[in-house]
Each structure stands twice: as C-alpha cells, then as structure tokens.
Q: What sequence folds into this?
C-alpha cells in the first residue's frame, strides 16, 4: 500500500536493495513510502494491529531481519502487521531529510487506522514497534502525533497517534554530545543540526501526559545504542504518569532482532512483548 509523499519531498528514483549475509535483504533507497501487510493466521481472531519499523541508522532499513521476520512472528500471535517502508533521511539533503521519515510514519499510522473496520481490528488497538533508528522514528511518531480531523477527507480524518509503542534498542536521545547514536543523528539532522530541530527529536524531552504507553526492550551490553536511551524515555513517561515497562537484559548486544538464535532470557523478548500487548486487552 503506497503512502502520500507530500509536495515538498517527492519520490526519489527507485527502490534499491542490498543483500547481507546476516541481515538478509536491506533497503538502501526508498523511492516511495509504503506499507506491506501481513494478515494474521485465519483461525485466530485479531483484536489489534502492529506497525513495524525496521532499523538501520536512517541510512538503510533491515527489511528482513527487523521487518519481515518480526511480522511473521506477530501474525502467528494473531495480529495484523504492517511493515513500514519509509524514505531514508541519510540519502538526501536538507530540508527533506529532517521530516519526511516522520511524515511517512504518521501517514502510515493514519492509513492503518483507516483500514481497521474493513480488516476487523480495533481502531484504538494499533501499536507502533521500532528497532534502533526505527525506534527513534516510532518514538517521534509517539510524541509528535497528528490529530484527526473528522471533517476532513482521506487520511487526515484519522489520528496518527499510536495506542501503544514497543521500542527495541531504540535511539531516543539527540543532543550536542550525540549521546544516543551519532550516525542516526547525523543522517537525520546533518553534521551541524539546528538546535530547535535537535530538541524536537530529543524524544525523552518531548514526552507529555498524552504520549502512549510503551514497552522498552534493551540489552545492558549494547555498545551501539547505549541503554540510557531507553532508561531516559521510561523516566520521562513515569514523570508524566504514562504507563511504562522496561526490560533490560544482561546480554544481547545491539541488533538482536527476534533473538531466535540467541540463548538466555533475551531469547523470549518477542513473546514477552506479545504478552504485554495481550495483557492490555489486545
């Protein structure tokens, strides 16, 4: 399902794919944003949907590893799943790089909500799950939603606000010290970012009482995106009275995906995430 690109940031060339021995197929250029739908197992009655955003430092998208693989697991648990293919900020110049991924995420949420009745899931049970830089994009969509306008036509009728978010080893801090993840920050904002934009995308400082409930998943030994990214976000949620759950695993590193090939407690994180959603009535 294609998404609108907006007048100021048109489609870019054509999709480009690269193959990685560990991560499988990866998108290295996205011409037009889109959602790929995975239907739940027919025998199970879906109550909710999950929109998945693969990571890749805002430079690529780990489409198989943090997209398709995750979607297949979630459909087996009874959810409709939509994997978001968003335009990559690291591939273009200012000013488009700073906003068009967020435009794509918010339009994607609106489109999924518009499909709720026809596909049979609750329009108030749509979660946003993001990995690494995809976690930053999911966090951005959570703290900067677009409200629905019931008098408007098309996607603008619907809110883009997720009903819950699951952020997995997410990049969330953006600051002058680049303490979150320097590559993601450079690719999204440029080497010398505007201070106002940097503050806008420093997600823990943007939380308020309307931010959706969240589950944060991280490994303590993550050397790529430090665990303080998740801790700071959870602290902000708690401060504003928003339900929050934080799972820090002792080992797992960065980019563990579904963790199907890992041993130890982190191996079950995805099952724990499904249980977290279902405990909320999904």
A:
């Amino acid at each position: 399902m294609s998404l609108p690109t907006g007048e100021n940031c048109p489609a870019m060339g054509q999709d480009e794919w690269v193959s990685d021995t560990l991560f499988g197929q990866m998108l290295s250029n996205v011409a037009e944003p889109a959602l790929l739908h995975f239907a739940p197992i027919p025998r199970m009655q879906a109550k909710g949907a999950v929109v998945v955003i693969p990571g890749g430092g805002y430079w690529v998208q780990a489409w198989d590893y943090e997209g398709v693989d995750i979607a297949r697991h979630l459909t087996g648990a009874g959810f409709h799943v939509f994997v978001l293919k968003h335009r990559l900020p690291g591939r273009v110049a200012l000013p488009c790089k700073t906003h068009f991924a967020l435009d794509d995420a918010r339009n994607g949420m609106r489109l999924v909500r518009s499909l709720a009745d026809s596909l049979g899931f609750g329009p108030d049970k749509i979660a946003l799950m993001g990995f690494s830089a995809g976690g930053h994009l999911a966090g951005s969509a959570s703290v900067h939603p677009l409200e629905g306008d019931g008098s408007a036509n098309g996607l603008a009728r619907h809110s883009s606000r997720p009903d819950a978010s699951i952020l997995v080893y997410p990049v969330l801090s953006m600051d002058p010290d680049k303490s979150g993840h320097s590559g993601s920050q450079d690719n999204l904002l440029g080497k010398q970012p505007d201070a106002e934009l940097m503050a806008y995308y420093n997600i823990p400082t943007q939380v308020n009482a309307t931010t959706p409930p969240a589950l944060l998943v991280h490994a303590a030994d993550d050397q790529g995106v430090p665990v303080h990214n998740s801790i700071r976000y959870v602290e902000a949620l708690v401060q504003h009275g928003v339900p929050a759950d934080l799972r820090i695993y002792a080992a797992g590193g960065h980019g563990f995906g579904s963790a199907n090939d890992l041993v130890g407690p982190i191996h079950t994180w995805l099952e724990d995430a499904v249980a977290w959603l279902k405990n909320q009535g999904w």
Observations:
- The chain has a mean pLDDT of 93.
- The first strand starts at residue 16 and ends at 20.
- The helical segments are 64-76, 100-114, 116-119, 133-143, 182-189, 195-200, 228-239, 269-278.
